[in-house]
Amino acid sequence: MKILKTLSFCLLLVICQAQLAAQEHPTAEKLHHILIIQWADGVDLKLKEEALTLFQRFPEKVDGCEEVSIADITLSSDDFDTIIIMVFESQAAYDAYEAHPDHGRIVALRPKLVKSASIVDYWK
Predict the structure, then answer these.
(1) What is the mean pLDDT of residues 26-43?
(2) 3-state DSSP call for residue 48?
(3) pTM reported for the whole predicted model
(4) 60 by DSSP, 3-state: which?
């Protein structure tokens, strides 16, 4: 059953990536950036909270980052613990998020915090 769920999830990711690649220059659409995380065993809770707080503050710090939603999905997923959904008004806003020093801090923390992760981006 776990293999079937994993294969289904992988298929969903491939479909989403194919749809994203097929989209050219969306006009009124927004970029949805989804991170699905499995935390490392014995994760440092203080560092985890720091990373989640950094994510939550992006709408205040990055122009065009409209929304950040974070949810615990441990009860609905065999492998993943947390989902982070971010909404950007444009590609430029997403690029500003990636260039932001707080994003750099999250990237630096990742090896200490994350066992595995998946990312899906789409325009809607």
Answers:
(1) 92
(2) helix
(3) 0.78
(4) helix
